[in-house]
Every structure is written in C-alpha cells, then in structure tokens.
Amino acid sequence: MADMIEVGAARGDAPPPAASAARRGAKSANRVGRATPYLFLAPYLVLFTVFGLLPIVLGIYLSVHQWDFQLPNRPFVGLDNYKELFSSDSAVFGDWWQSVRATAIFTVISVPLLMVVPLGLALLLNRSFPGRTFFRAVYFAPYVLGVAVIGLLWRFLLDANLGLVNRLLGVVGLPADTPWVTDVPWAWVSLVGVTVWWTSGFNAVIYLAGLQDISPELYEAARVDGATAWERFRHVTLPGLRPVLLFVMTTTVLASANVFGQSFLITQGAPGTETRTVVWYIVEQGLRNNDAGRAAAMSIVFALMLAVVSLANFRLFRYRED
Amino acid sequence: MTTPTRTAPTHPLRRVGLYAILVALALVFLIPLVWMVITSLKTYDGAQRIPPDWLPDPLSGYGYQQILTNSANPVLRWFLNSMLAATLHSLLVLVTASMAAYALARMRFRGRGVTFALIVGTLFIPPTSLIVPNFLIVDSLNWIDTLAVVVVPGAASAFGVFFLRQFFLSLPKELEEAAVLDGANQWQIFYRVVLPLSKPALATLAVLSFLTNWNDFLWPIFVLFSPEKLTLPPGLGLLQGSYVTDYPVIMAGAVLASVPVLILFVLAQRHIIQGVSRSGLKG
C-alpha cells in the first residue's frame, strides 16, 4: 500500500491534505496501483483456471487412475490405462483403434478438399464484380448453422429412399438408390461431402483476406514478364499465401480430427461402428460408460497425436521456405 | 477485405461465364437449405412419397404444429433456453475477455508474460480432449442440468482474450495518454475511452460467441438431461430420436434453430466475416 501512495505522489498528483490516508491509498491504487492489472484479469482468470487449466491437470490425474463415477474406490493404476490402448488383448484396443482409423480416414480425405475447394472459391471471389458480397455471404451461410441442424438436414437429404440427393441423381439418369449413410464407402463420401459443403465458406473467407494482402504490383510485374495465369498463380499467389496456407492447414487438420457431430447424427456410426470417431468414442467411454480414467488417457494420447501432426505441418511449410 | 486486388474480366462472354459458375455454386449451397424449408411445410404423408415431391402438396403447418404443441418436445422452451444461454455467454465473454485483454495489452505487471503464454498455450489444446475432466468439474459444482453449465465453462476459451488484445494493441495510445492527463484512472480509461473505440471488435466477438454457443452440440448433449432444460442442438437430437422419419417435424425444428442465426448473419455479416478473416491472419 505504501508503495502505491509513493507512486501516486511521484506522479505529482498528491491529494489535498484534507483527504484521509485511506482514501488517498484507494484512489492512487486505482490510478497506477499494483493491484489494478490483477483486478482487471481476475474475472477471466477465475474462469480460465477452473475450466481451462484445471481440466488439463485433472485429465492427467484421471488418466493414471481407475476412475468410475459410480464406484467409491478409484485406485492409482500407473500407466495401465495407456498400456491398454497399445496391447491387443485389452478390452478397449479394438474399438479404440477402429475409432482412430475412422478419424484418420475422414481427416486424410477431407483436409485436401477443404484446402483446395475454398481456395477455388476465394480466387473466384477475389475480383471486383457486382454481387460479390452477396455470393461471398451465400457461400459462407451454411457455416453459421450448427452441426445439429446440418446433421439432421443431411441425414434426411441423404436418405436412400426419401432423400433429395438420390432424387436429383435419378433425374439426371444416375443410379438413384445409393445407400449414402448406411454403407461404406458411401458413408465416407457423405461425411466428407457434407463437411466440405458446411465449412468451405469459412476457409474461403480466410484465403480471401490473404489474397488481398498480396501486392497488386507483384501480379503486374509478372504480367509484364509475360507470365501466364497459371504461372502467376504458381509464383505469386501461392508463395504470397504461404502463412495463410499454414494457418488453414493447421486449423483444418485439427477441426477434421475432432469430427463428432457429422458421424454421430448422419451415419450414426454405421455401418456397425465403422464411422465412429475418436472424440465420439472418448466421450462415450468417459461419460456413458463411466470410465473417466481410460477416457482421460485416450484424450491425452489423442492430443499428443494431434500435436505431432501439427508440428509436422509447421516443418513441411518451413521446409518449403528454404 | 472490401477492395479486390484483381481487375474484373473485361470480355462480356467471360463475365457471363463467371456469373454462371457463381450462380451454380450458390445453388449448391442454398438448395439444401431451401429443401429444409419446403419439407417443413409438407404433411407426414406428403413427405413419405417416393420419389419426393418438389413442392409441398398439400401445403401444411403440420410440422410446426407438432413441434409447438407436443409437450414431450418443448421446442419453444429449448429455443428460449438457447437464446438465454447464448446471450448470457456472449455477455460473460465480452466482460471478462475485454478486461483481461486490456490488462495484457496496456499494463505492465509481474507475471504478464507467463499469463499470456499460458492463455495462448491453451489455444493449441483440442477442447474436445478436456470434455471428460470438465464434466467432473461441473459435476462437483452441481451444475449438471442447469443453465450455468452451458453458459460459463465455454467462456474460459482463450480466443476472446487473444482477439481483443490484438485489437487493443492496434489502438493509438494518445487518447489514453490524454485521458491520464485529464486525471482519469485505469478503469475510467478502459470504460470511457478504450471500449467505445473498440465497438467493432466487441461486436464481432459478441456475434461469434453467440453463434458458437447457439450451435454447440457435443457439450450440452452430455451435461443437460431434463427435456425442459435442453438447448436447441441436443433438443434437435431428441426430436430426431422420437420422430425418426417424420421429416416435416424434424425439418420444422431445424428451421426454427436456423432462423435466428441466419438473421444474425444477414445483419452482422461484415462483423462475422471480418472476425473470421482477422483470426486467420493474426492467428
């Protein structure tokens, strides 16, 4: 407290002599007091500590315990929950790796499409023409709807008998009885297709901002040098977009790897549990089967897998820069 | 964002080609949404025809009547719950994130670097991997099946603080310095000078937070149980479970959940799109 008063006095705005010491202290504390930054931070830090940091610590703690919500004893089991994920004779091995496989399939197919399709949309929108803002809004619109709406809607559109997709295919003379949501590989086509439809506008908007940061002079110079449209794209647009490409790649990989709602609502895991994803399996283990310990271990292994993939992304893009 | 760098194609034929592509793509994005509305206006029998009718025949309010009157699926209640949750969540994010971001952007204090690093660090942790421990935490707070459980925990997200800090750093310091000379304290500077200057950024964050909360599905399906406590996304899941292939009813529910965010999108398009592109460039 004395410190604060000192600072206040040093700033040359000492209160009139009539003011009490207490009031003086409080007032100068407001100005430049040591407590001020912490008071500003406090409300957020409370939330951040309880729901941002504590769950990380708690997750690590849970992962080394056998933790059932319904049992009073929650014994320490060391790394058993982790080992089970890697030993083929454990109860969870098969389901866990199947969910990893499902997530990997979805990610590997969806990420390239979610990189390329939005880039095409952005290039299309990156010129001036009447109605540009309107089209940008239309392409972005599906993204503002939640996965629950998207899931219900596409479950219906992809219905083999009553759905619009097969109806339209029939109209143009293609097979009209594809089991889009109940059999593979169609289920994968559906999940990826819906995700591309749903989120392309989002990535396109990010690309668009990146494109506008590329200096028009570079295009002009390339044109003067007689570069074709493809050469301008290859040697001006792509290098200019590199940081944006890295950002889009990283966030898209993370978003795809965390896929849940689409398979939960559209394919409902079908056929069997073949399209059940990692996030789905983890929450099912942890919250439906009351096995928080195993679920926590899976979460951590999964987060580490994603960290490795993200690092690989950074390496890949840095490599190209050299 | 508003000044395209490339010049428009000059040849009229190229222009026609451009619009043909633009319109075809627009149809791909819009037809599913239009089909949702069309189906919500069919009768049960009308929606069961194979192949499906292009237009409702007869036109019917059956779907909407079901969701508004069937007490097993209190859709209006879910709608109000969602509205309340998303509004409160968005306010909570605005208040807590703006104060924290201001301290991190403009004040010098011990631990600032560490605090900011911790907050940004959590941006790299997939939120889905924290769901199980977070469930335990809200359970021990006795928040399961309450409004708080869908309002509060999400506000711990680092995004708002990060986003506003970047914005505050871009503001000129002169106005704040002038306010100091006028004898304003930190709170007054924040409240009277910085916040009014930050209206665009605050609006963007408010809209994005509202959308995120309105659409959240994974968390509420595990922490809300009673039919009268649900928000719309888990409610829609319940609706699908009980109506299965009664598509007019399910689509009516989907329309009801879409209308507010589509209206919000039309009104706040600039904020949403700027928010998304800014988070991309500075993230």
TrEMBL record, chain A:
Main location per the UniProt record: membrane
Q: Name one GO cellular component term.
A: plasma membrane
Entry superkingdom: Bacteria
Q: Which PROSITE patterns match?
A: ABC_TM1
Q: Where in the cell is it found?
A: Cell membrane
Q: Which InterPro entries match?
A: ABC_transporter_permease (IPR051393), MetI-like (IPR000515), MetI-like_sf (IPR035906)
Q: Where is the ABC transmembrane type-1 domain?
A: 100-313
> Which positions, given as ranges, span the membrane?
38-62, 104-125, 137-157, 186-209, 244-266, 295-317
Q: Quote any Pfam family the record assigns.
A: BPD_transp_1
Membrane topology per record: Multi-pass membrane protein
Q: Span of the secretion signal?
A: none
Could you mention a single GO BP entry for this protein? transmembrane transport
Which keywords does this Swiss-Prot/TrEMBL entry list? Cell membrane, Membrane, Transmembrane, Transmembrane helix, Transport
Q: Which family does it belong to?
A: Belongs to the binding-protein-dependent transport system permease family.
Q: What is this protein called?
A: Carbohydrate ABC transporter membrane protein 1, CUT1 family
Q: Which organism encodes this protein?
A: Micromonospora avicenniae
UniProtKB/TrEMBL annotation, chain B:
What Pfam families does the record tag this protein with?
BPD_transp_1 (PF00528)
Q: Which biological process annotations from GO are given for this protein? A: transmembrane transport
Location relative to the cell: Cell membrane
Membrane-spanning segments: 16-38, 78-104, 116-137, 143-164, 247-268
Please provide, in alphabetical order, the Gene Ontology terms of the cellular component aspect for this entry: plasma membrane
Q: What is this protein called?
A: Carbohydrate ABC transporter membrane protein 2, CUT1 family
Q: Which CDD domains match?
A: TM_PBP2
Q: Which residues form a coiled coil?
A: none
Q: Does the keyword Transmembrane helix apply?
A: yes
Topology of this chain in the membrane: Multi-pass membrane protein
Where primarily located?
Answer: membrane
Specify whether tRNA processing is a keyword of the entry.
no
Keywords carried by this UniProt record: Cell membrane, Membrane, Transmembrane, Transmembrane helix, Transport
Domain ABC transmembrane type-1, residue spans: 79-268
Q: Which family does it belong to?
A: Belongs to the binding-protein-dependent transport system permease family.
